[in-house]
TrEMBL record:
Protein name: PSer/pThr/pTyr-binding forkhead associated (FHA) protein
UniProt keyword annotation of Cell inner membrane present: no
Superkingdom in the source lineage: Bacteria
FHA domain sequence ranges: 70-119
Residues that span the membrane, as ranges: 12-29
PROSITE patterns membership: FHA_DOMAIN
Organism: Peptoniphilus stercorisuis
Pfam families assigned: FHA
Keywords: Membrane, Transmembrane, Transmembrane helix
Length: 145
């Protein structure tokens, strides 16, 4: 009797382990699938937040689509609001002009950084550029044709 119960419990335990492994693989698949959808379905220019969003003490989206002139700063009137104490109320603008995007620092106190260098003038953005604003890092992604 004891052997039968131990055999049944052994197979139940193995089944539970397989179901657990299957659920982990399924979650990984769904996560990878959602990343591919987000990245490839955006046929536009956008900013992607590099920071882990759960490590920030304020809310931010993962992506910000760029059209026209976008203002970034701590002010609630900004298009992209960053509630970081190292970000000025009016930190920078990203301007779309003739199919290109340009970054303009608005004389912010702590500065805006493009690929690790402080921005002094208006600079044209290129695909893959890293923009540093306070504690936030963005990557400029241009998926337009």
């Amino acid at each position: 009797m004891f052997e039968i119960i131990s055999q049944v419990l052994k197979y139940v335990f193995i089944l539970i382990i397989y179901l657990f492994i299957f659920s982990i693989i399924r979650l990984m698949y769904l996560d990878i699938k959602s990343i591919n959808k987000k990245g490839s379905s955006l046929d536009t220019a956008y900013l992607k937040v590099v920071n882990r969003l759960d490590s920030l003490n304020f809310k931010m989206q993962e992506y910000y689509i760029l059209k026209g002139t976008i203002s970034i700063g701590r002010s609630s009137k900004s298009d992209i609001v960053i509630k970081d104490k190292f970000v000025s109320k009016n930190q920078l603008n990203i301007i779309e002009e003739k199919g290109s995007f340009f970054l303009e620092d608005l004389d912010s106190a702590n500065g805006t950084y493009l690929n690790g260098e402080r921005v002094e003038d208006i600079i044209e953005l290129r695909n893959g550029d890293k923009i540093g604003v306070g504690l936030i890092q963005f990557i400029f992604v241009d998926n337009r044709g």
